[in-house]
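Quick one: structure for this chain?
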Amino acid sequence: MSGNAPPARTEDWLALCLAPGVGSRTAARLLERFGSVAAVLAADAEALSQAGLSAQSVRGLRAPEEAAIDAALAWAAHDSACILALDDPRYPPQVASIDAPPPLLFVRGDPLLLSDPQLAVVGSRNPTRGGLDTSRAFAAHLAGIGLCIGSGLALGIDAAAHHGALQTGRTIAVLGTGPDRVYPAAHRELARRIAENGALVTEFPPGTGPRPGHFPRRNRLISALALGTLVVEAAPGSGSLITARYAAEQGREVFAIPGSIHNPLARGCHILIRQGAKLVDSADQILEELVPQLARFTMPPAADAPPDGDPPELDADYRQLLDCMGHDPAAPDELIARSGLSAQSVSSMLLLLELQGHVSSHPGGRYSLRGRS
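Got it. Here's what it folds into:
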């Protein structure tokens, strides 16, 4: 598709994606062959057949199902609901960059959050108590310093990650159903909270129920949205390993938490570690690995930074926090007391200041001005 072409109509994207047998890979092939959604829909039956489509898919493109299109548009007309097509400027660029990205994303909540720096946290549906506690604690810590936490709204580790993130920050749930369905049904209230404080996203249109074949596609989107994927607990056959495999294929980081050799739910994590996943036992180790990628979200281009002094985005609160630091490393609690700023603000500001080179972190979670100890 031409980068200068005007955005296609949502109706046309829906006609393409709702045609039987047209998934992400087929849609990508058609768009590459014909150049635009409008050109695909305008193609005659012979041209579509020559592009490798079945007779059923050709009929679906030549005579789109208007009722299904109208139903999707009616869903998107509700508050906090929207449909993002590949040519929408709000479509997350990290997803657009993968092989055969979903042509459409159906979103409830804040669509701009999809482009924020994100860590996926996934794992077993039947975890140990320790696994639940670890998932919740890692998600709460990382969300509190500004990372968005993504997961799949499943029972177990996924739900714990969402709950932990909601305590301190924001979270995204990727669904294996349409945006108007919640699976499992027990998570309806959790889904409502996520939609109000983050986003629910899916590549499946309204009315789509849970089907086994949908969840690998959900896992592919979970990993695509994130800078990295953390697997907390997983058996060797867990779907979480599929998410980790997709993350590796997409060039994302893969992290795994080790466990006892006697715990069957640690074996999947151990498999990942043997395959090259990074072993982590603290949230700060994940941050250390992600700092180079996080920098592009928070640091201005070098040409825009002045040769001396604070970069322009450091407002009065940031300068106030820097003024509260002395020669000795200080704990965040001390900085909160000195500055009068909120705990969440100080946590996120410290991350930005470290990325920009103003402060250094020390053992025990303490901070000092860069170059001082």
